[in-house]
Specification:
The complex is a heterodimer of chains A (128) and B (394). Chain A has 5 helices and 1 strand; from the N terminus they run βααααα. Chain A is mostly helical and 128 residues long. Chain B has a domain of 221 residues: Vaccinia Virus protein VP39 (Rossmann fold, 3-Layer(aba) Sandwich), CATH 3.40.50.150. The chains are: A mainly alpha (128), B alpha/beta (394).
Chain lengths: 128, 394
Protein backbone atom coordinates (compact mmCIF):
# COMPACT_ATOMS: atom_id res chain seq x y z
CA UNK A 1 0.00 0.00 0.00
CA UNK A 2 3.02 2.32 0.34
CA UNK A 3 3.04 5.29 -2.01
CA UNK A 4 -0.30 4.26 -3.40
CA UNK A 5 -3.22 6.52 -4.27
CA UNK A 6 -6.31 4.38 -4.31
CA UNK A 7 -9.67 5.62 -5.55
CA UNK A 8 -12.43 3.29 -4.40
CA UNK A 9 -15.06 2.35 -7.03
CA UNK A 10 -17.84 4.88 -7.50
CA UNK A 11 -20.47 5.79 -10.05
CA UNK A 12 -19.42 9.45 -10.00
CA UNK A 13 -17.20 10.60 -12.88
CA UNK A 14 -15.48 13.13 -10.60
CA UNK A 15 -11.72 12.98 -10.72
CA UNK A 16 -9.32 14.50 -8.20
CA UNK A 17 -7.38 15.88 -11.14
CA UNK A 18 -10.26 17.77 -12.72
CA UNK A 19 -8.57 20.45 -14.82
CA UNK A 20 -11.85 22.25 -15.51
CA UNK A 21 -12.65 22.88 -11.87
CA UNK A 22 -14.45 26.17 -11.25
CA UNK A 23 -12.47 28.99 -9.63
CA UNK A 24 -12.10 28.91 -5.86
CA UNK A 25 -14.73 31.16 -4.27
CA UNK A 26 -13.62 34.22 -2.31
CA UNK A 27 -16.74 34.59 -0.18
CA UNK A 28 -18.23 32.24 2.40
CA UNK A 29 -21.79 31.14 1.64
CA UNK A 30 -24.68 32.87 3.36
CA UNK A 31 -25.45 36.38 4.51
CA UNK A 32 -22.91 38.29 6.54
CA UNK A 33 -24.05 39.22 10.05
CA UNK A 34 -24.72 42.86 10.90
CA UNK A 35 -23.37 44.12 14.18
CA UNK A 36 -24.42 47.76 13.92
CA UNK A 37 -28.02 48.96 13.98
CA UNK A 38 -27.45 51.85 11.59
CA UNK A 39 -27.70 50.86 7.94
CA UNK A 40 -24.39 50.62 6.11
CA UNK A 41 -22.00 50.84 9.04
CA UNK A 42 -20.96 47.18 8.77
CA UNK A 43 -20.12 47.62 5.10
CA UNK A 44 -18.23 50.82 5.75
CA UNK A 45 -16.14 49.08 8.38
CA UNK A 46 -15.18 46.43 5.84
CA UNK A 47 -14.17 49.17 3.42
CA UNK A 48 -12.04 50.84 6.06
CA UNK A 49 -10.28 47.58 6.91
CA UNK A 50 -9.66 46.73 3.26
CA UNK A 51 -8.36 50.23 2.73
CA UNK A 52 -6.08 49.98 5.76
CA UNK A 53 -4.72 46.67 4.47
CA UNK A 54 -3.97 48.04 1.03
CA UNK A 55 -2.43 51.14 2.54
CA UNK A 56 -0.11 48.90 4.53
CA UNK A 57 0.77 46.86 1.41
CA UNK A 58 1.73 50.07 -0.31
CA UNK A 59 3.70 51.42 2.60
CA UNK A 60 5.67 48.19 2.83
CA UNK A 61 6.40 48.26 -0.89
CA UNK A 62 7.61 51.86 -0.75
CA UNK A 63 9.74 50.97 2.24
CA UNK A 64 11.33 48.10 0.33
CA UNK A 65 11.83 50.18 -2.81
CA UNK A 66 13.59 52.90 -0.89
CA UNK A 67 15.72 50.39 0.97
CA UNK A 68 16.74 48.55 -2.19
CA UNK A 69 17.43 51.80 -4.02
CA UNK A 70 19.59 53.08 -1.19
CA UNK A 71 21.54 49.81 -1.20
CA UNK A 72 22.27 50.37 -4.88
CA UNK A 73 23.16 54.04 -4.50
CA UNK A 74 20.18 55.27 -6.51
CA UNK A 75 18.87 58.82 -5.82
CA UNK A 76 15.33 57.52 -5.84
CA UNK A 77 13.55 60.17 -3.82
CA UNK A 78 14.69 62.96 -6.16
CA UNK A 79 13.80 60.93 -9.24
CA UNK A 80 10.28 60.25 -7.90
CA UNK A 81 9.64 63.92 -7.23
CA UNK A 82 10.56 64.92 -10.80
CA UNK A 83 8.97 61.97 -12.64
CA UNK A 84 6.11 62.56 -15.12
CA UNK A 85 3.72 59.66 -15.76
CA UNK A 86 3.40 58.48 -19.38
CA UNK A 87 0.02 57.64 -20.95
CA UNK A 88 0.76 53.93 -20.65
CA UNK A 89 1.68 54.30 -17.01
CA UNK A 90 -1.51 56.23 -16.35
CA UNK A 91 -3.57 53.47 -17.99
CA UNK A 92 -1.80 50.83 -15.94
CA UNK A 93 -2.47 52.73 -12.73
CA UNK A 94 -6.16 53.14 -13.72
CA UNK A 95 -6.45 49.36 -14.04
CA UNK A 96 -4.84 48.90 -10.64
CA UNK A 97 -7.27 51.40 -9.11
CA UNK A 98 -10.17 49.49 -10.63
CA UNK A 99 -9.08 46.28 -8.91
CA UNK A 100 -8.69 48.17 -5.66
CA UNK A 101 -12.21 49.57 -6.00
CA UNK A 102 -13.63 46.07 -6.44
CA UNK A 103 -11.96 45.06 -3.21
CA UNK A 104 -13.02 48.20 -1.38
CA UNK A 105 -16.69 47.89 -2.30
CA UNK A 106 -16.94 44.09 -2.25
CA UNK A 107 -19.59 43.96 0.48
CA UNK A 108 -21.96 46.15 -1.53
CA UNK A 109 -21.66 43.75 -4.42
CA UNK A 110 -21.97 40.65 -2.24
CA UNK A 111 -25.06 41.97 -0.51
CA UNK A 112 -26.54 42.48 -3.96
CA UNK A 113 -27.58 46.05 -3.56
CA UNK A 114 -28.20 47.36 -7.07
CA UNK A 115 -28.06 51.02 -6.08
CA UNK A 116 -24.65 50.66 -4.46
CA UNK A 117 -23.36 48.57 -7.34
CA UNK A 118 -24.59 51.13 -9.85
CA UNK A 119 -22.84 53.88 -7.95
CA UNK A 120 -19.59 51.98 -8.06
CA UNK A 121 -19.89 51.53 -11.80
CA UNK A 122 -20.70 55.20 -12.33
CA UNK A 123 -17.74 56.30 -10.27
CA UNK A 124 -15.46 54.00 -12.16
CA UNK A 125 -16.70 54.96 -15.59
CA UNK A 126 -16.30 58.64 -14.70
CA UNK A 127 -12.69 58.09 -13.76
CA UNK A 128 -12.04 56.39 -17.05
CA UNK B 1 3.50 37.37 11.56
CA UNK B 2 2.29 34.44 9.43
CA UNK B 3 4.62 31.47 9.57
CA UNK B 4 6.32 30.31 6.40
CA UNK B 5 5.41 26.72 5.63
CA UNK B 6 8.40 24.46 5.10
CA UNK B 7 6.89 21.63 3.06
CA UNK B 8 7.01 21.37 -0.71
CA UNK B 9 3.29 22.09 -1.25
CA UNK B 10 3.61 25.63 0.06
CA UNK B 11 2.48 28.14 -2.55
CA UNK B 12 4.33 31.25 -3.61
CA UNK B 13 2.77 34.50 -2.48
CA UNK B 14 3.62 37.78 -4.18
CA UNK B 15 5.26 40.47 -2.08
CA UNK B 16 1.94 42.34 -1.93
CA UNK B 17 0.13 39.18 -0.81
CA UNK B 18 2.75 38.62 1.88
CA UNK B 19 2.35 42.22 3.07
CA UNK B 20 -1.41 41.74 3.17
CA UNK B 21 -1.01 38.55 5.19
CA UNK B 22 1.39 40.26 7.61
CA UNK B 23 -1.12 43.04 8.13
CA UNK B 24 -4.02 40.63 8.72
CA UNK B 25 -2.00 38.54 11.19
CA UNK B 26 -1.14 41.74 13.08
CA UNK B 27 -4.77 42.83 12.92
CA UNK B 28 -5.83 39.52 14.49
CA UNK B 29 -3.22 39.97 17.20
CA UNK B 30 -4.61 43.44 17.89
CA UNK B 31 -8.19 42.08 18.05
CA UNK B 32 -7.42 39.12 20.30
CA UNK B 33 -5.15 41.05 22.66
CA UNK B 34 -5.80 44.80 22.66
CA UNK B 35 -9.45 44.81 21.61
CA UNK B 36 -10.27 41.79 23.78
CA UNK B 37 -8.73 43.56 26.79
CA UNK B 38 -10.62 46.74 25.94
CA UNK B 39 -13.87 44.81 25.64
CA UNK B 40 -13.29 43.13 29.00
CA UNK B 41 -12.67 46.52 30.61
CA UNK B 42 -15.83 47.82 28.97
CA UNK B 43 -17.76 44.89 30.48
CA UNK B 44 -16.30 45.39 33.95
CA UNK B 45 -16.70 49.16 34.02
CA UNK B 46 -19.89 49.79 32.07
CA UNK B 47 -21.92 46.78 30.99
CA UNK B 48 -21.84 44.73 34.21
CA UNK B 49 -22.64 47.73 36.48
CA UNK B 50 -25.52 48.68 34.14
CA UNK B 51 -26.84 45.13 34.34
CA UNK B 52 -26.62 45.18 38.13
CA UNK B 53 -28.52 48.47 38.30
CA UNK B 54 -31.29 47.00 36.17
CA UNK B 55 -31.50 43.52 37.72
CA UNK B 56 -30.23 43.97 41.23
CA UNK B 57 -27.54 41.34 40.69
CA UNK B 58 -24.49 40.60 38.54
CA UNK B 59 -24.98 38.72 35.24
CA UNK B 60 -24.77 35.01 35.98
CA UNK B 61 -24.74 33.29 32.61
CA UNK B 62 -22.96 33.74 29.32
CA UNK B 63 -26.35 34.30 27.65
CA UNK B 64 -27.06 37.26 29.92
CA UNK B 65 -23.62 38.65 29.18
CA UNK B 66 -23.99 38.10 25.44
CA UNK B 67 -27.39 39.82 25.40
CA UNK B 68 -26.01 42.80 27.33
CA UNK B 69 -22.81 43.04 25.30
CA UNK B 70 -24.59 42.90 21.94
CA UNK B 71 -25.94 46.37 22.63
CA UNK B 72 -22.49 47.72 23.48
CA UNK B 73 -20.60 49.66 20.83
CA UNK B 74 -17.22 48.18 21.81
CA UNK B 75 -18.55 44.65 21.31
CA UNK B 76 -19.97 45.66 17.95
CA UNK B 77 -16.61 46.94 16.78
CA UNK B 78 -14.75 43.96 18.25
CA UNK B 79 -17.09 41.51 16.51
CA UNK B 80 -17.26 43.36 13.21
CA UNK B 81 -13.49 43.76 12.97
CA UNK B 82 -12.91 40.14 14.01
CA UNK B 83 -15.45 38.87 11.49
CA UNK B 84 -13.84 40.93 8.74
CA UNK B 85 -10.37 39.76 9.73
CA UNK B 86 -11.55 36.16 9.42
CA UNK B 87 -12.82 36.83 5.91
CA UNK B 88 -9.60 38.62 5.04
CA UNK B 89 -7.47 35.68 6.19
CA UNK B 90 -8.95 33.53 3.43
CA UNK B 91 -9.03 36.32 0.84
CA UNK B 92 -5.32 36.93 1.42
CA UNK B 93 -4.35 33.39 0.35
CA UNK B 94 -6.98 32.23 -2.16
CA UNK B 95 -5.60 34.06 -5.22
CA UNK B 96 -2.15 32.54 -4.62
CA UNK B 97 -3.67 29.07 -4.18
CA UNK B 98 -5.76 29.53 -7.32
CA UNK B 99 -2.64 30.33 -9.33
CA UNK B 100 -0.77 27.36 -7.85
CA UNK B 101 -3.47 24.70 -8.38
CA UNK B 102 -2.00 23.03 -11.51
CA UNK B 103 1.43 22.88 -9.89
CA UNK B 104 -0.08 21.52 -6.67
CA UNK B 105 -1.67 18.60 -8.49
CA UNK B 106 1.58 17.64 -10.18
CA UNK B 107 3.48 17.99 -6.91
CA UNK B 108 1.04 15.64 -5.15
CA UNK B 109 1.51 13.13 -7.98
CA UNK B 110 5.28 13.43 -7.77
CA UNK B 111 5.42 13.05 -3.99
CA UNK B 112 3.04 10.08 -4.10
CA UNK B 113 5.68 8.22 -6.05
CA UNK B 114 8.18 8.81 -3.24
CA UNK B 115 6.55 6.03 -1.20
CA UNK B 116 6.09 5.80 2.53
CA UNK B 117 2.50 6.91 3.05
CA UNK B 118 -0.69 6.34 1.09
CA UNK B 119 -4.01 7.91 0.18
CA UNK B 120 -7.32 6.06 -0.10
CA UNK B 121 -10.30 8.02 -1.40
CA UNK B 122 -13.93 6.93 -1.29
CA UNK B 123 -15.99 9.07 -3.70
CA UNK B 124 -19.17 7.27 -2.59
CA UNK B 125 -18.82 8.54 0.99
CA UNK B 126 -21.85 10.63 2.00
CA UNK B 127 -20.82 14.06 3.23
CA UNK B 128 -22.08 14.95 6.71
CA UNK B 129 -24.28 18.03 6.72
CA UNK B 130 -22.01 19.83 9.20
CA UNK B 131 -19.21 19.69 6.62
CA UNK B 132 -20.80 20.39 3.26
CA UNK B 133 -23.84 22.32 4.54
CA UNK B 134 -21.92 25.40 5.64
CA UNK B 135 -18.58 27.14 5.18
CA UNK B 136 -17.04 26.32 8.57
CA UNK B 137 -14.65 29.03 9.83
CA UNK B 138 -16.09 31.22 7.03
CA UNK B 139 -13.70 29.41 4.68
CA UNK B 140 -15.11 30.14 1.21
CA UNK B 141 -16.32 26.98 -0.51
CA UNK B 142 -16.01 24.92 2.67
CA UNK B 143 -13.74 21.95 3.25
CA UNK B 144 -15.31 19.20 1.23
CA UNK B 145 -16.75 20.56 -1.97
CA UNK B 146 -13.69 20.13 -4.19
CA UNK B 147 -12.14 17.09 -5.79
CA UNK B 148 -8.67 18.59 -6.00
CA UNK B 149 -6.20 19.86 -3.39
CA UNK B 150 -7.59 23.41 -3.40
CA UNK B 151 -9.51 23.38 -0.10
CA UNK B 152 -6.54 21.77 1.65
CA UNK B 153 -4.21 24.43 0.30
CA UNK B 154 -6.56 27.27 1.26
CA UNK B 155 -6.87 25.86 4.78
CA UNK B 156 -3.13 25.28 5.26
CA UNK B 157 -2.13 28.70 3.95
CA UNK B 158 -5.02 30.42 5.71
CA UNK B 159 -4.14 28.77 9.01
CA UNK B 160 -0.59 30.06 8.62
CA UNK B 161 -1.99 33.62 8.49
CA UNK B 162 -4.69 33.01 11.12
CA UNK B 163 -2.39 31.46 13.72
CA UNK B 164 0.39 34.05 13.40
CA UNK B 165 2.90 31.50 14.62
CA UNK B 166 1.17 30.17 17.74
CA UNK B 167 0.51 26.78 16.13
CA UNK B 168 4.20 26.17 15.56
CA UNK B 169 6.52 26.31 12.57
CA UNK B 170 4.59 23.73 10.51
CA UNK B 171 1.21 24.33 12.19
CA UNK B 172 1.80 21.06 13.99
CA UNK B 173 2.34 22.17 17.58
CA UNK B 174 -0.87 20.57 18.83
CA UNK B 175 0.19 17.19 17.38
CA UNK B 176 3.73 17.58 18.71
CA UNK B 177 2.54 18.67 22.16
CA UNK B 178 -0.03 15.89 22.52
CA UNK B 179 2.17 13.11 21.15
CA UNK B 180 5.09 14.20 23.31
CA UNK B 181 2.79 14.42 26.32
CA UNK B 182 2.03 10.72 25.81
CA UNK B 183 5.67 9.86 25.08
CA UNK B 184 7.05 11.62 28.18
CA UNK B 185 4.25 10.89 30.62
CA UNK B 186 3.77 7.25 29.66
CA UNK B 187 7.24 6.15 28.46
CA UNK B 188 6.35 2.47 28.82
CA UNK B 189 3.46 2.90 26.37
CA UNK B 190 4.76 2.20 22.86
CA UNK B 191 1.95 2.64 20.31
CA UNK B 192 2.35 0.66 17.11
CA UNK B 193 -0.72 2.02 15.28
CA UNK B 194 -2.04 5.57 15.69
CA UNK B 195 -5.20 7.10 14.22
CA UNK B 196 -5.95 10.84 13.82
CA UNK B 197 -9.67 11.53 13.19
CA UNK B 198 -10.85 14.68 11.42
CA UNK B 199 -7.25 15.24 10.40
CA UNK B 200 -7.85 17.91 7.65
CA UNK B 201 -4.45 18.61 6.05
CA UNK B 202 -2.77 15.98 8.21
CA UNK B 203 -0.47 18.42 9.98
CA UNK B 204 -0.97 16.80 13.38
CA UNK B 205 -1.01 13.22 12.10
CA UNK B 206 2.40 13.96 10.59
CA UNK B 207 3.54 15.21 14.02
CA UNK B 208 2.61 11.86 15.58
CA UNK B 209 4.67 10.15 12.85
CA UNK B 210 7.55 12.42 13.82
CA UNK B 211 7.25 11.62 17.54
CA UNK B 212 6.75 7.88 17.03
CA UNK B 213 8.80 7.07 13.90
CA UNK B 214 8.33 3.32 14.33
CA UNK B 215 4.53 3.55 14.53
CA UNK B 216 2.10 3.20 11.61
CA UNK B 217 0.12 6.45 11.53
CA UNK B 218 -3.28 6.83 9.86
CA UNK B 219 -5.45 9.91 9.35
CA UNK B 220 -9.11 10.10 8.35
CA UNK B 221 -11.28 12.93 7.14
CA UNK B 222 -14.48 13.12 5.07
CA UNK B 223 -12.98 15.64 2.62
CA UNK B 224 -11.08 14.32 -0.39
CA UNK B 225 -9.60 17.76 -1.00
CA UNK B 226 -7.87 18.10 2.36
CA UNK B 227 -6.67 14.48 2.16
CA UNK B 228 -5.14 14.83 -1.30
CA UNK B 229 -3.29 17.82 0.04
CA UNK B 230 -2.42 16.08 3.34
CA UNK B 231 -0.93 13.15 1.43
CA UNK B 232 1.37 15.33 -0.67
CA UNK B 233 2.23 17.48 2.36
CA UNK B 234 3.29 14.56 4.56
CA UNK B 235 5.14 12.83 1.72
CA UNK B 236 7.15 15.97 1.00
CA UNK B 237 8.09 16.17 4.69
CA UNK B 238 9.28 12.55 4.58
CA UNK B 239 6.67 11.51 7.16
CA UNK B 240 4.82 8.31 6.19
CA UNK B 241 1.11 8.66 6.99
CA UNK B 242 -1.80 6.68 5.54
CA UNK B 243 -4.76 8.93 4.81
CA UNK B 244 -8.29 7.61 4.29
CA UNK B 245 -11.50 9.33 3.22
CA UNK B 246 -13.77 8.13 6.02
CA UNK B 247 -16.36 9.43 8.44
CA UNK B 248 -15.03 9.28 12.00
CA UNK B 249 -18.52 8.33 13.23
CA UNK B 250 -18.44 5.22 11.02
CA UNK B 251 -14.84 4.05 10.77
CA UNK B 252 -13.98 1.36 8.27
CA UNK B 253 -11.34 -0.24 10.50
CA UNK B 254 -11.52 -3.54 12.34
CA UNK B 255 -12.08 -3.80 16.10
CA UNK B 256 -9.00 -3.40 18.32
CA UNK B 257 -6.96 -2.00 15.42
CA UNK B 258 -5.22 0.98 17.06
CA UNK B 259 -3.16 1.81 20.13
CA UNK B 260 -4.00 5.53 19.97
CA UNK B 261 -7.03 7.39 18.65
CA UNK B 262 -6.38 11.14 18.54
CA UNK B 263 -8.38 14.25 17.64
CA UNK B 264 -7.47 17.91 17.56
CA UNK B 265 -10.01 20.75 17.51
CA UNK B 266 -12.38 18.23 15.95
CA UNK B 267 -15.09 17.48 18.50
CA UNK B 268 -16.42 21.03 18.67
CA UNK B 269 -17.37 20.82 14.99
CA UNK B 270 -19.68 17.84 15.65
CA UNK B 271 -23.16 17.60 17.12
CA UNK B 272 -23.29 15.94 20.53
CA UNK B 273 -24.99 12.97 18.88
CA UNK B 274 -22.07 12.59 16.45
CA UNK B 275 -19.50 13.07 19.22
CA UNK B 276 -21.06 10.12 21.03
CA UNK B 277 -21.06 8.07 17.83
CA UNK B 278 -17.40 8.91 17.28
CA UNK B 279 -16.42 8.01 20.86
CA UNK B 280 -18.20 4.67 20.46
CA UNK B 281 -16.21 4.06 17.27
CA UNK B 282 -12.99 5.14 18.99
CA UNK B 283 -13.69 2.66 21.77
CA UNK B 284 -14.36 -0.08 19.21
CA UNK B 285 -11.20 0.42 17.13
CA UNK B 286 -8.91 0.85 20.16
CA UNK B 287 -7.22 -2.28 21.39
CA UNK B 288 -7.58 -3.05 25.13
CA UNK B 289 -5.02 -0.84 26.88
CA UNK B 290 -5.14 1.71 24.03
CA UNK B 291 -5.54 5.46 24.53
CA UNK B 292 -8.16 7.94 23.30
CA UNK B 293 -6.70 11.45 23.46
CA UNK B 294 -8.43 14.66 22.35
CA UNK B 295 -7.08 18.21 22.19
CA UNK B 296 -9.94 20.62 22.66
CA UNK B 297 -11.10 23.92 24.10
CA UNK B 298 -11.85 23.85 27.82
CA UNK B 299 -15.43 23.01 28.87
CA UNK B 300 -17.70 25.87 29.91
CA UNK B 301 -18.12 24.35 33.36
CA UNK B 302 -14.47 25.19 34.08
CA UNK B 303 -14.83 28.84 33.05
CA UNK B 304 -16.40 31.96 34.50
CA UNK B 305 -19.47 33.27 32.63
CA UNK B 306 -17.56 36.11 30.90
CA UNK B 307 -14.91 33.66 29.61
CA UNK B 308 -17.65 31.30 28.39
CA UNK B 309 -19.21 34.21 26.51
CA UNK B 310 -15.81 35.23 25.10
CA UNK B 311 -14.83 31.77 23.84
CA UNK B 312 -18.24 31.03 22.37
CA UNK B 313 -17.99 33.98 19.96
CA UNK B 314 -17.02 31.48 17.25
CA UNK B 315 -20.27 29.59 17.71
CA UNK B 316 -22.33 32.61 16.77
CA UNK B 317 -20.15 34.39 14.24
CA UNK B 318 -17.64 31.93 12.75
CA UNK B 319 -19.95 29.26 11.36
CA UNK B 320 -19.16 26.72 14.07
CA UNK B 321 -22.69 25.94 15.25
CA UNK B 322 -21.76 23.09 17.60
CA UNK B 323 -18.93 24.93 19.32
CA UNK B 324 -20.95 25.89 22.37
CA UNK B 325 -23.04 22.73 22.62
CA UNK B 326 -19.85 20.68 22.82
CA UNK B 327 -18.32 22.97 25.44
CA UNK B 328 -21.50 22.76 27.52
CA UNK B 329 -20.90 19.01 27.88
CA UNK B 330 -18.95 17.26 30.61
CA UNK B 331 -16.04 15.54 28.79
CA UNK B 332 -15.95 12.67 31.26
CA UNK B 333 -19.68 11.95 30.82
CA UNK B 334 -19.24 11.88 27.04
CA UNK B 335 -16.31 9.49 27.28
CA UNK B 336 -18.06 7.16 29.71
CA UNK B 337 -21.17 7.03 27.55
CA UNK B 338 -19.01 5.32 24.91
CA UNK B 339 -17.91 2.50 27.22
CA UNK B 340 -14.74 3.90 28.78
CA UNK B 341 -14.56 3.45 32.56
CA UNK B 342 -14.58 6.39 34.99
CA UNK B 343 -11.27 5.38 36.50
CA UNK B 344 -9.60 5.38 33.11
CA UNK B 345 -10.46 9.03 32.34
CA UNK B 346 -7.69 11.61 32.12
CA UNK B 347 -7.54 15.35 31.51
CA UNK B 348 -4.54 17.64 31.53
CA UNK B 349 -2.90 20.76 30.20
CA UNK B 350 0.33 20.62 28.26
CA UNK B 351 2.71 23.48 27.40
CA UNK B 352 3.38 24.17 23.74
CA UNK B 353 6.10 21.74 22.72
CA UNK B 354 7.53 24.01 20.00
CA UNK B 355 8.12 26.88 22.41
CA UNK B 356 9.15 25.05 25.59
CA UNK B 357 12.61 23.77 26.51
CA UNK B 358 12.84 19.95 26.69
CA UNK B 359 13.55 20.14 30.43
CA UNK B 360 10.56 22.40 31.16
CA UNK B 361 8.28 20.32 28.94
CA UNK B 362 9.30 17.10 30.64
CA UNK B 363 8.89 18.63 34.09
CA UNK B 364 5.39 19.90 33.20
CA UNK B 365 4.06 16.66 31.76
CA UNK B 366 5.47 14.42 34.47
CA UNK B 367 3.99 16.56 37.28
CA UNK B 368 0.62 15.39 38.66
CA UNK B 369 -2.07 16.08 36.03
CA UNK B 370 -3.97 19.29 36.56
CA UNK B 371 -6.67 21.30 34.92
CA UNK B 372 -8.01 24.57 36.21
CA UNK B 373 -9.60 26.26 33.24
CA UNK B 374 -6.69 28.64 32.80
CA UNK B 375 -5.77 27.06 29.51
CA UNK B 376 -6.25 27.24 25.77
CA UNK B 377 -6.77 30.73 24.43
CA UNK B 378 -7.27 32.23 27.88
CA UNK B 379 -3.89 31.31 29.26
CA UNK B 380 -1.16 33.91 29.65
CA UNK B 381 1.41 31.41 28.45
CA UNK B 382 -0.36 29.27 25.92
CA UNK B 383 -0.98 25.66 26.78
CA UNK B 384 -3.28 23.07 25.27
CA UNK B 385 -6.12 21.26 27.03
CA UNK B 386 -6.44 17.53 26.53
CA UNK B 387 -8.75 14.81 27.74
CA UNK B 388 -9.36 11.16 26.98
CA UNK B 389 -9.33 7.69 28.45
CA UNK B 390 -7.57 4.37 28.40
CA UNK B 391 -9.59 1.46 27.06
CA UNK B 392 -9.91 -1.17 29.78
CA UNK B 393 -7.56 -4.13 29.31
CA UNK B 394 -10.29 -6.56 30.28
Amino acid sequence: MEGEVLILPDSSPASPRDADAPPLPLDAAGRRPTFFTQDGVDQILTMVLELATELWVLRERVFVIEAVAAEHGLPLKTAVETHTLSAEQRAELAGMRSVMMDQLFRTLNKDNRPVGAAKVLTERSLKR
Amino acid sequence: MPIELSHDLKVNHSRDAQSRQDFISSLRGFILNDMAAGMRARFDEEVAPDFERQHGRAPETQDEIHAAMRRDLYFKFYSAVRYNAQEMVWRSVIPSVQAALPELSSKVDRWSDAGGGSLTLDPSLAMPENVDGLDVHLMPGGYANLDHAGAGAVYDNGLAVFSAGFMGPDLNDIGLSMSNYVKHRFPEFQPARILDCGCTVGHNAAAWAQTYPDAEVHGVDVSASVLIYAHGRAQSLGLPVHYHQMDATDLGFEDNAFDVVFTSMFLHELSVKDIKRFFAEAHRVLRPGGLLINMELPPNSALKPYDQFYLDWDCYYNKEPYYRAFRDQNPQDLIQSAGFRAGDFLQFTVPQYSFTSPEAFNAAVTAPPSFDGDTGRLSASLSWFGFGAWKAKS
